[in-house]
Design brief:
The protein has 334 residues and is an alpha/beta fold. The protein is 33% helix and 14% strand. The N terminus is likely disordered.
C-alpha cells in the first residue's frame, strides 16, 4: 500500500495533534504494568493433578531460546475439531506464565469447546522479528516472534492434536497490532485476529517514539531503533494495521477499546489507575478509531467494533471481550 506524503496542508494539524497526544501518553505507556481485572486466574493445578487437557512444552524459538507454551485442550468438543485460540501477552509479559493465565479466566474456554494456547514471554517484543538484538540491555539474541508464530507454534499446535484449520490470534495492548499483522503474515494459518486496547496505528506521528520509550522502561529494550529501525523506517508502516488496512479484506477482525472512564473493574480508582489505565486507554481508543476510519474507507466488512461506555487499560475488560467473542460464536466465523 502506497503511503501518502506528509505535505503541509489540510491534514497537517491533525497529524501534529496526533503526535502531541502520543508523546503526552509516553509516561502512561511506559508505566503500565497490567492492572488486575479478575482474581480468578486458572493455572495448571498441581504437578500431580493438572487439569484435563493441559500441556506445557518448550517449543523451538526459531533463533530465540525455546519458548514455553501452555495449552488447554477442549474438554467438551474433540480438540481436533474445536476452534483454537492463541493469546498474546502485553508489554510487561513475564517468562513464567502469561498474563492471560495470571490475571483472567480465559483458560476456562477449554470447558466451552475451545482449545486455548498461551505462549509465555516476549517482554517488550511487540511479537515481531527484530532487525537485531536489543542493544541497550545487551540482549544475547534477536527476537524472532514473528517467525515463531508463523512456523514453530503452528507445527506444535498440530503435533498435540489441536485444530490447525480454525485458529484465532488474540492480543491485548502491545500485542493488539501484533495479532493483526501476524495473522496477515501467517499464510492463512490464523483465520481471524483480535486487537483489544491495541496500538493499531503504530506509525502515526509520535507513536514510534512512545513505543521506544515504553519498551526501554519495560526492561531496557531498544524497540525504538533495534526492532524496525528508526521512527522513519518504512518497516513501521509495514507493521501498522491502519496503513496495511486493505490487506485485511476477508479476515474477520475484532477491534475493541474503552474510553478511559472508570467502570466495574475500578470501583475505587487509585492514582495508578488514573495515570496509567485512563490515558493509555484513551490512546488505544484513538488508535482503534483511526483503524476503523481507514477500514470504512476501503470497505472492510468482516470487522466487529466494540467500544464500551466505560473501560480503562485493565485486565477485566479484556477478559470480558474474550467471553463476548465466545457468546457471539466469533471463534467459528469465516
Amino acid at each position: 500500500m502506497r503511503l501518502r506524503s506528509m505535505r503541509l496542508g489540510k491534514g497537517w494539524g491533525k497529524r501534529v495533534a496526533a503526535a502531541a497526544v502520543a508523546v503526552a501518553m509516553i509516561p502512561s505507556l511506559a508505566g503500565v504494568t497490567g492492572q488486575l481485572g479478575a482474581a480468578n486466574a486458572w493455572g495448571p493445578g498441581s504437578d500431580k493433578h493438572p487439569p484435563k487437557g493441559f500441556k506445557q512444552a518448550f517449543v523451538n524459538g526459531d533463533g530465540m531460546p525455546n519458548v514455553k507454551v501452555r495449552s488447554w485442550a477442549s474438554t467438551t468438543t474433540p480438540p481436533s475439531k474445536a476452534p483454537t485460540v492463541v493469546f498474546l501477552d502485553g508489554l510487561r509479559a513475564t517468562w513464567t506464565t502469561s498474563g492471560w493465565e495470571q490475571q483472567t479466566n480465559v483458560a476456562f474456554l477449554s470447558q466451552h469447546g475451545v482449545n486455548v494456547v498461551m505462549p509465555v514471554g516476549g517482554t517488550a517484543s511487540w511479537f515481531t522479528d527484530w532487525q537485531s538484538p536489543s542493544s541497550t540491555n545487551h540482549q544475547p539474541y534477536r527476537y524472532t516472534w514473528g517467525t515463531f508464530l508463523k512456523t514453530s507454534l503452528p507445527a506444535y499446535i498440530g503435533s498435540i492434536g489441536l485444530n490447525t484449520h480454525n485458529v484465532s490470534l488474540v492480543g491485548l495492548s502491545m500485542a493488539g497490532s501484533a495479532a493483526m499483522i501476524n495473522a496477515l503474515n501467517s499464510g492463512g494459518f490464523y483465520k481471524r485476529a483480535a486487537s483489544l486496547s491495541g496500538m493499531d496505528n503504530l506509525s502515526a506521528p509520535g507513536m514510534p517514539i512512545a513505543v521506544g520509550i515504553a519498551s526501554l522502561d519495560a526492561g531496557g529494550y531498544n524497540a525504538g531503533l533495534d526492532m524496525w529501525g528508526g521512527p522513519f523506517d518504512s518497516r513501521w508502516a509495514l507493521n501498522d494495521p491502519t496503513v496495511q488496512v486493505a490487506r485485511f479484506r476477508g479476515i474477520p477482525l475484532w477491534i475493541s477499546a474503552g474510553n478511559g472512564v472508570f467502570g466495574k473493574y475500578t470501583p475505587h480508582p487509585t492514582i495508578v489507575d488514573a495515570v496509567t489505565g485512563v490515558p493509555l486507554e484513551v490512546l488505544a481508543l484513538s488508535q482503534a478509531r483511526a483503524f476503523q476510519s481507514a477500514a470504512q474507507r476501503v470497505g472492510l466488512s468482516k470487522v466487529v467494533y466494540d467500544f464500551p461506555a466505560a473501560g480503562t487499560h485493565t485486565w477485566g475488560y479484556w477478559q470480558d471481550q474474550v467471553w463476548a467473542m465466545q457468546r457471539a460464536n466469533w471463534f467459528n466465523k469465516f
